[in-house]
Design brief:
Strand content: 15-25%
Shape: elongated
Order of helices and strands: EEEEHEHEEEEEEHEHEHHEE
Structural class: alpha/beta
Distance between the termini: 18 Å
Number of domains: 2
Number of strands: 15
Length: about 300
């Protein structure tokens, strides 16, 4: 299933823009293959406001974000997850504003790390982050003119959390769902099984618009999430078809299923394949010797039915 990506984004780094009713956004100047044109910080409300994802440890972005709320009171800081392009500016914003920092929790892996694998990507981990208070799934936090519902969405990271802005009927989706691309799901911090469960969870919600951590707004969001689900199922099927032809390692699978891949994304693709393989091994469809690992070899399970 082809995803109807929308790569339009006219934001200029450092310039605040109205994104929707009660929502302003500010782009950090940290473009990369993983962050697109940069990380987006959001400001919710007027007068007494909340900030979502303060962004990277970038003094220019921090200064621009504080300038954007000059004359206002920042009461809350919400963090979707602990990659270094989203959370490291939090201490500086908290120090300047005294705001309460809220998130699902500190950084943690979704599973144990095997053999020192999983090379760090551009968006590596902010292991120093710790919220003032951890939020539970479904918990609501209210400010002046806004109410935010915490929605746990593990998968991209184990501590990923989206936030539903109830008054505007929009969802801040972090890196879980983005209009311009699909996110990397990279073990040990990410889990494909968790990611798919979180997608199905979002598909049952009604918010029509998502504001992601990178790129423009996601429109017709429930339908877009279904495209995301179809894409991942197609990727899984492609892996199984490759293994139906014989045992393979992850580089061979990447070459077979990622045609025309940007060389800068080869390692990320390998990690996403590993995430799929972890799930397929757990479901008994694929076998490997020992625990799933980047250096492992994979084969179809003898008990698994062959794809047509």
């Amino acid at each position: 299933m082809d995803i109807p990506f929308d790569k339009a984004l006219d934001l200029v780094p450092g310039k605040v823009e109205e994104a929707g009713p009660g929502v302003r956004r500010l782009l950090a100047n940290n473009p990369s293959p993983f962050t697109y044109k940069g990380t987006i910080s959001y400001i919710v409300g007027r007068g007494q406001v909340a900030i979502i994802d303060p962004g990277p440890l970038d003094e220019v972005h921090i200064a621009a974000l504080l300038d954007a709320v000059r004359g206002e009171t920042v009461t809350h800081i919400f963090v979707t997850h602990t990659h270094r392009d989203h959370s490291p500016a939090t201490p500086a914003i908290k120090s300047a504003t005294g705001a309460l920092v809220l998130a699902q929790g500190p950084h943690r892996p979704a599973r144990a790390l095997h053999g020192g694998e999983a090379p760090r990507l551009d968006a590596s981990n902010d292991t120093d982050f710790s919220p003032d208070r951890a939020l539970a799934d479904g918990e609501t936090v209210a400010g002046k003119g806004w109410t935010m519902e915490a929605v746990t969405t593990p998968g991209h990271t184990a501590n990923h959390m989206a936030f539903a802005f109830k008054e505007a009927n929009v969802l801040f989706s972090g890196d879980h769902v983005m209009a311009w691309s699909t996110p990397v799901v990279a073990p040990p911090d990410g889990s494909m099984r968790d990611y798919m469960a979180s997608l199905h969870k979002l598909a049952r919600r009604s918010e029509p618009i998502y504001f992601p951590g990178h790129g423009g707004a996601v429109r017709e969001a429930p339908r877009f999430v279904q495209h995301y689900i179809g894409h991942r199922l197609a990727r899984e099927a492609a892996i199984l078809r490759r293994l139906d032809k014989g045992e393979a390692d992850i580089p061979a699978i990447v070459r077979a299923i990622y045609i025309g891949l940007d060389p800068r994304l080869v390692k990320a693709a390998g990690l996403s394949v590993l995430a799929h393989l972890e799930d397929l091994v757990a479901r008994g469809l694929v076998a490997t010797d020992g625990e799933p690992a980047l250096a492992g070899r994979y084969r179809r399970s003898r008990s698994a039915a062959r794809l047509p």
